[in-house]
Amino acid sequence: MGKSLMLNCRDEVLNLTKQLVSIRSIVNTDGESVIAHSLYTMISAYPYFQANPEKVVIEKTINDEKARYNVLAYVKGTKGKSKRTVIIMGHMDTVGVDDFNQQEDYAFKPDEWMELLKGEEIPNVVRNHLNPDEWLFGRGALDMKSGVASNLFLLNYFSEHPDKLDGNLVFIAECDEEDGSHGILSALHTLKKWKEEQGFTYIAAINADFVSPLYDGDQNRYVYKGTVGKLLPGFYIAGAETHVGAAFEGLDPNYIAAELTRQISYSSDLCNLALGEYTLPPVTLKQMDLKTEYTVQTALSAYVYYNFFIHSWTPKEALEILKEQAKIAFQHSLDSFEKRYKAYCKLSGKKFNGIPWKPRVITYEEMNESLIQAHGSNYIEAMDQFKKNLLHDDSLDLRMYALHVVEEAWKWMQDKNPAIILFYSSLYYPRIELSGETIEEQELSNALVTAVEKINDLYKQPIKVKNFFPFISDMSFLSLSDDEAAIQAVKDNNPAWGTKHYVDYDLVREINVPVINIGPYGMDAHKKLERVEIEYSMEVVPNMTKLVIEGMLQCE
Q1: How crowded is the C-beta side of 454, counted as CA atoms within 13 Å?
Q2: Domains of the chain: which residue ranges?
Q3: Quick one: pLDDT at residue 554?
Q4: 3-class SS at 541?
Q5: Residue 3: its pLDDT value, please?
Q6: Whole-angstrom Cα distance, residue 369 to residue 365?
Q7: C-alpha angle 333-338-343 in degrees, rounded to nearest 5
Q8: What is the pLDDT of residue 435?
Q9: What is the 3-state secondary structure (H, E, C) of 78-102?
């Protein structure tokens, strides 16, 4: 493939990116609605959609407390009669701009921001990137408005050349990727409707989320087959309270929580290997006790949750692994407690009375089932009402809502000896493996490899194909590698399931399209110095994506 055969898209994609960055579309703000309506207006003005207005829609998200929208469009190819359909997707929202402080307005003005940065104290590597011909700075420039701009360019291109498509192209610009994925979960319903009404056969999805160096000095640009999965296991830790003047008569739940974090956080034993690639290890995202005011009594309970990535482990397997880790941590904390208690008794001459506790780790599902067995309908009805009432507390996010449900259930436990209750406290982002088990997976993998080989001859930096996109993304909701038992473990162990939280995983399984990521390259996403490389992101990405679309739809 000669350079002359590549689409001349750099300037258009760059201008589109700047236009999108200028819209303050921070997640969970009115800006998400603003950018959606702007995109809808833009796409509706394309000649193809002026002639076919029913092929572009703006739709409010479903079961969402916020008023925000997705924009979806499709182009029907005229080259043949194939129903094969490729999806291109990307999110419109960004993280916030608190890190910009008094300079936050510049976050949405890339050219002015880059000029201002020339007078700031910044690392030399960043200063070297202050070249407007090579890099673009600004909130969302990398994550991922340049990716959306690339997809917009391709949507417009194929709308002008439907004769090059033996099949169809679907465009999705979804909201709320940076928080709860209401956007893509709502878009699934539209994909299902189009599948039924238009006869679309979804054969591939191409996400355009950002990629970055994986280590210092890494010059590779990466494309990904499939994606990492993400769980948020939470641990409610019930201790044995005591007055601080009799410290060894009780068991501080913070002490157990600290040992649990030491056992789990950064542990390479919890890196999941699949297809030759490891996940990052878990890390703590929150750790707290649940005292609401100062007293001289030790805390009754504590709460901790961790980010937990998976490649091949199912949520059911992850529960078993984490339960074992919690048992080990509990035993370690009791062993060290006993050792310190004996050391204190030796110093003070007081009698060592032993310790009455044993390691006790229970999943939420196990606790819930035991309480149903013990209390029957009284427990079930009381908890149902408690969950409904708790929905009125707008101060609670999903994670804290789940915690309060566990706390309430714990009150029904007859055995109040110290324990760890393990549960899932937030949304499960399913892992996706492109293992080549289906024809579509094989075709998509081959189309991606072929596209990379062609582009590698024209681009100065090596482009590498990897098996798992390493960041959380909406890719997770286009396919499902987990079986029914694995998903049931998610439902049964999330205390918020069915009230504060619900995901139609059956709908994900119904769409079930293999997914890859071809996205813009840059650095410092979610940071003040976020920036995107122009040549790769505005030239290579659109052309590589086009090649994959062509490979899947047998275009000229």
Answers
A1: 22
A2: 3-209+217-227+429-478+513-553, 230-424
A3: 78
A4: helix
A5: 60
A6: 6
A7: 125
A8: 85
A9: CCCCCCEEEEEEEECCECCCHHHHH
pLDDT of residue 474: 96
- Which pLDDT belongs to residue 4? 57
Stretches in the chain below the pLDDT threshold 50 = 1, 556
What pLDDT is recorded for position 269?
A: 97
| Tokens encoding 7 | 């689409």
Domain 230-424 architecture: 2-Layer Sandwich (3.30)
**Domain 3-209+217-227+429-478+513-553, CATH homologous superfamily name and number:** Zn peptidases (3.40.630.10)
Query: Angle 258-260-263 (CA atoms, 0-180°, nearest 5)?
Result: 110
Task: Read off the pLDDT of residues 430-468 as tens digits, 9 standing for 90 and up.
Answer: 999 998 889 999 999 999 999 999 999 889 999 999 999
**Average of per-residue pLDDT values in the chain:** 96
pLDDT at 6: 85
- Tokens at residue 111, please? 């050219």
Q: Yes or no: say if 154 and 518 are a contact pair by the CB < 8 Å rule.
A: no
Q: What is the 3-state secondary structure (H, E, C) of 3-18?
A: HHHCCCCHHHHHHHHH
Pair 251, 418: CB distance under 8 Å: yes
Is residue 522 classed as helix, strand or coil in its secondary structure? strand
For residue 97, give the nearest of 151, 131, 141 by alpha carbon.
141
Q: DSSP string covering 178-208, please?
A: TTT-HHHHHHHHHHHHHHHHH--EEEEEEE-
What pLDDT was estimated at residue 144? 95
Calpha distance 11→17 (Å, rounded): 10
Note the pLDDT of residue 556: 45
Residue 214: beta bridge partners? Answer: none
Residue 332: Cβ-neighbour burial (10 angstroms; 0-12, 13-18, 19+): middle
Q: Would the CATH topology of 3-209+217-227+429-478+513-553 be identical to that of 230-424?
A: no
Handedness of CA 161, 164, 169, 173 (dihedral sign): negative
**Rounded distance, CA 508 to CA 427, Å?**
14
Q: Whole-angstrom Cα distance, residue 344 to residue 503?
A: 52
Q: Rg (Cα) of the chain, in Å, rounded?
A: 26
Before 523, cis peptide (omega within 30)?
no
C-alpha angle 393-404-306 in degrees, rounded to nearest 5: 110
Pseudo-torsion of CA 148, 149, 153, 155, nearest 10°?
Answer: 20
